[in-house]
Amino acid sequence: MRIVIFFIMFFCPLLSFGQSDDAKELYRDANQSNKKGEHQQAIDLLKEAISEDPNFLKAIVFIADIYNFKLQDLDNAIDYYERAIYIEEKNYIVYRLANCLFSNGDYERAKNNYNKYLKTANYGKSINEVKNKIKKCDFAIEAMKNPVPFDPINISNVNSVFPEYNPVLATDGSYMIFTRMIKKRMGRDEDLFVSFNYDDGWAKPKPLSVFFNFPNYSEGAHCFCSNDNQIYFTACNREDSKGRCDIYFSTKDGYDDWQNPINLSINSSAWESQPSVNRRCDIIFFSSDRAGGVGGKDIWMSKKQDGKWSKPENVRALNTPYDEVCPFISRDGKTMYLSSDGHIGMGKLDFFVSKRDDRGNWSKPINLGYPINSPKNEYGLFVAKDGKTAYFSTDNLDSKGDLDIYSFTLPEDISTESIADLTINILDSQGDYLEGKEIIIYVYDRVTGEKQKYETDESKYLIELNFSNDYAIQVYAKDYIMYSDNLSLDPNENQYEKNVYLDRATKDNSFVLKNILFPKNEHDITPDSYYELDILVKFLKLNKDISVEVGGHTDDMGDEFYNWQLSGKRARVIYEYLIKKGISKDRLWFKGYGYSKPISSGKDELSRSKNRRTEVKILEVKKN
Questions:
Q1: What is the pLDDT of residues 246-278, one digit of tens each?
Q2: Which helix (H) or strand (E) holds 14?
Q3: pTM for this structure?
């Protein structure tokens, strides 16, 4: 026993009596340097302390913590945590080591250390949190065994030594707006930048309008809608801010002539950011840490009703007790991409995708897989209108120094439905663009029943449509006749253009309602024809000074008298519906013409179908 005591006292004095005075002094100096932000100086002093006392556990852990929390040097942090554990296996050191291994992508060793931590008697962390990390390790190990296709391309002309993130493309892909963080001596400044896409590639970025970028304030995280003429973006700490960061809205009047941004009513005294608006511009998703959520930062949504945004609702199916940020609602309106560190993933913030069903329920978010996701942060995913080309930011690849913007092709199982472009040219009877008029456009999806309304003063208008569907289209303006047509999309074609001729609403001018249909030999219209009738009601209510005749027409098949009677009955049904909807019968007339006024030869079925029509003729225009 005396020999053992002698050995401990003389050969292990550090374990018995603690650190030397010199080592303690160096430790105190290192602590002061670290508080001043002189992290490397602190490390050098701590290394001196360790040279004085190789078993100075606090100094070794201190070095590991600086590498881990201050310098983000995981390799050195892991090395010093392991040295500390070799001296004494404290559970908090095991946990920090496990976290570093996890963040470094060493999932097997991270899992082993998390399990080791769970076996300790003193739980310093939530058991559920550690178990969640173990599940992430298991997921990551399997994901790396089954990688998904990934071909990231650095958008080099856009990126710089500063962080670039949250890329959003214009509808036609002609330009990109993104956030760049300029690091300054007194802090940082986030601004919106724009880069135009030319034949030879992306141009050098320029700061966006001064309406968006305020000196020494942060702006970013944005989205477009309405032909890119409306922008929603985030700005922080402005004079009219309700919270730390708020969502603002601005409209464009002419080429790059943006109006003063408006602070949205959905903002609170908390943090709101990263808006994403559906293509109809009537639903907005955003991230917020406001009260009433599921976790830290959650995905919230608001609907526009009668021109006003509703009280935001928490999208609980997407959220966890941790953070969900950067929502992106795709152009198909039912696919949501988001970043989360709460759902099971590869590490920090991972990309996930969720699908909304016909009842409005969101599916459980699915991880986009490895190597799209990595042990580091992935956020700001944007998917172009083709549903396949994605843009995002990461510092995990060949970046120029920090977060860079990349593009890649989404695997088919996590891509979205493609979108077709319909360009409508609104012309007068002479073929010139109709200028200076408030034009109303309606688009009705006959497959899904989705209804879209657009109000514009532009004579060239771009509308996005789902592929493979049939559409009814109506266009009108005050003092001009109504236009009615239909369009069937080819799944192999994504660009459509339609010239819409609007003639003056003068006496005897007429237009055909091409989406009013009747079953054969019947005078009751089909259910989906009521949509066009309701638009005719709106047209007549806008143009209150005109009176019209509803004329029914048939083809030449069958008995002439029967066709005359049938056409009259059909015209009467529409006449009565208009009266029911509030149009004065003093402004209405109806008449059946049978086959007396054909507009086509009637030699084949296509030609005969053109003769079977409902035509509206202007009888009178009252002068004010």
A1: 999 998 876 567 888 999 999 999 999 999 999
A2: helix 13-17
A3: 0.81
